[in-house]
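Why does residue order matter? Because the sequence determines the fold. Keep that principle in mind as you read this record.
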Amino acid sequence: MQRLGNSNGGMSPSAMRALYTGMIRPIFTWGAEIWLHNPPNFNAFRRLEYQALRKITGAYHGASQEKLGYIANVEPIQAKLTDMGVRWAARAIATGDPHIRDFLQDQPRGFPAWHDGTGGPQTTLEAPIPATFHLSDLQNPEEISWGNREDHRRGNLLQITLLRPEDPRSREKGYWAASLAQLVKDGWTLGYSDGSGRNLQTGAGAYIRLEQGQGSHTGAFLGDLASVADGERKGLALAIQQAPPDRKICVLSDSTTAIHTALQLSRGVPPKSGIETELKEALLARQRDTAVAWIRGHLGLEGNTIADKLAELHSHLGTNTLQTRTATHEGLRAASNRNRKEFRTQPGFGTRRTDWHRHALSTYTWYRTEKGPQKAWLYHIRKAGEPGCPCGHPMQTGEHITFHCPRYDTMRTRLLGSRKTWTEIDLPVWRKEGDESYNAIEAFFDFLYFEA
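Structure:
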C-alpha cells in the first residue's frame, strides 16, 4: 500500500479500503477464532491498521486512529477480532457439538462482545440436543377445509389458518373476534404468545385464556443476545407448556417465523437451538390436540395485547434485575452486526467518504482531524513560523478554513449553502438510483485542496 498511492494521487481511497479489508486484514487475522481466547498483544495489530488508515484517508501522522476509522468506515481491529469470535461461536452453537459448547463456557474471555466477565449478567449458551425423538404421527398431511378456516395436520401438530396475511379482512378486528369465538365454540382453549425486542432486550410472553374471564400467564427474559424471532419461539413454547393437559389448545401468534419453526419441528426437523429444543419437547409432551394459528398483531385483541405486554414486562424486568441472558446463534449474529455498525459509523463523521476523489478526501481528513497543512498544526510541529491565517485570523485551523475564512466565502455559499458545522456537512444526501450528479461537498473540499 505504501507504493500504490498517497494524498496527492495513486489508487483511489475506495480501492485502498477494499485492498486492506479484503486482502491484508484477512491474512493477519487468519485463525483468530481459535487463538482469540488467548489474545496476543494488540498493539502490533493497531500499528499496522493505523498505517493502512493513513494510506486510505491521506492523513498526517498524529491524527486520531479512532477518527480515521470512522472516516474510512473501518472498525477497530480488536472489534473485528471480537466479531470473528462471536460469529464462530454462533456457528458452533448451531452445530450442537458438546465439546465446542464446553469450550465456549470455559473460555469466555475470547468473546467479550457477549460475555464481559466483569460481574454483569452471565450468559447461558443455548445449544441443540441431538434429535432422538420419534414422532408417531408422520402420515401425509391431511387437509380439511370448511367455511373460511383451513386445518392442516403437520406431524403431531395442527395448523389452523383463520385468515392469511394478504387477506384484507385480516385487518378487521371484528372478523378476528368472530373467528376466535368459533374456535372456542369448537372446543379449543385459546392461548396467545408474543416476543418483544424493545431496547434491544428480548423478552417472551404467553397467556392462556380460560373460562369466566380467567387466565394464566407467564414470560421469560432472553436478553440482547437472542433475536426477536427467538423471543417469539420462546413465547410459543411457554404457551404450550402452560396449557391445561386435559384440553386441546390452539396457540395464536403474530409471528409466521415461530409458527413455521413449530411446524418444522413437528415434522422431525432437528432443533437448531435450546429454545427450539424446548419447543419440540413441549409439543411431544402434549397428550391432547395442539394447534397453532397466525393472528394479526396490534389490533387491540385482548389475548394478543396481554401476551405483548407480558413480553415487554419481562424484557424490562430482566434488564433491571440482571437476569441470566440466553445466547442463540441468531442473536449472536444480530449482536455482532450491531457492534460492527456502531464501531464503523459515528454521528458527525459522514458516510462513504472513501467514494470521494483522493484530493477531496485528503483535505476533508486534514481539516476534520485538525492534523494537516493548516498553519495552526504546522506551527504546533514547528514547521511554520506563525499559526495565523492570511485573512488576519490568529489561528488557521481546519474549522476556520472550512466554515469561516472570508477568502472562500463565494465557493462556500455556492457549494455548502447553509451548512455551518461538521454535523451538517456529514448529513447523508439522498439521491435517486443512477443519479451521477456531482457531490457539492466533495467539490468544495477538492477546491480547498488546490486553493488553501
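The CA atoms of residues 17 and 23 lie 10 Å apart.
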